[in-house]
Amino acid sequence: MPDSFTNWIEDNKGRFGANNTPYFIRDNYQNGKISDGLRTNIDLANDVLVLMSKASESGVAVQSMAGMIATKHNAQITPINYKSEDSILRKINSDKCKVDKIKDAVRTTIIAEKDSIKSILTELQRLNCLETNSFPATY
Questions:
Q1: Per-residue pLDDT tens digits of the chain, which is 139 residues long
Q2: pTM of the predicted model, to two decimals?
Q3: What is the CB neighbour count within 10 angstroms for residue 106?
Q4: How many Å apart are CA 136 and CA 85, to the nearest integer?
């Protein structure tokens, strides 16, 4: 690393903490820690493959649950859809986020009449299928 970077880190390391690590450290170093070394494209590629594998493993369960809810509310569902590797990488780069922040690697849509949407959302929340503050249930 350039001396100016190393000096800046040394001068400012007391300022870093769980909630105030600079984004360029959080996003570019393993576990957001300089001591763990730089992340590499191989690390990112492996993280993406793990996410895609988890999405694939959960796809049948997601579709089954969506189908159960849709049937109960006289609604329809779309076929299961998996986010591609390119799409995951694009989202990571555009949103400046980590792989673990991708919440729609596997998704489906419940298509329902307007008067059923509130009860469907309530059921999805009860089943813990929605992230806090998510809107609406399209994944």
A1: 778 878 888 888 777 776 777 877 877 777 777 777 777 666 778 889 999 999 999 999 999 999 999 999 999 999 999 999 989 988 887 887 788 888 889 999 999 999 999 999 999 988 887 654 333 323 3
A2: 0.60
A3: 22
A4: 24
CB neighbours (10 Å) of residue 114? 6
Do 80 and 62 touch, CB atoms closer than 8 A?
yes
Residues 137 and 130 sit within 8 Å (Cβ to Cβ): yes
Name, in order, each residue with C-beta under 8 angstroms of 36's C-beta and a sequence gap of 6 or more.
Answer: 29, 30
Per-position DSSP letters for 57-119, written without gaps between them: HHHHHHHHHHHHHHHHTT-EEPPPEE--HHHHHHHHHHHT--GGG---SEE--EE--HHHHHH
* Contact present, 138 and 107 (Cβ < 8 Å): yes
Residues 68, 129 contacting (CB under 8 angstroms)? no
Q: Which amino acid, one-letter code, is at 12?
A: N
Alpha-carbon gap, residue 109 to 39, rounded angstroms: 35
Tell which residue, 29, 46, 47, 45, has the closest CA to residue 37: 29
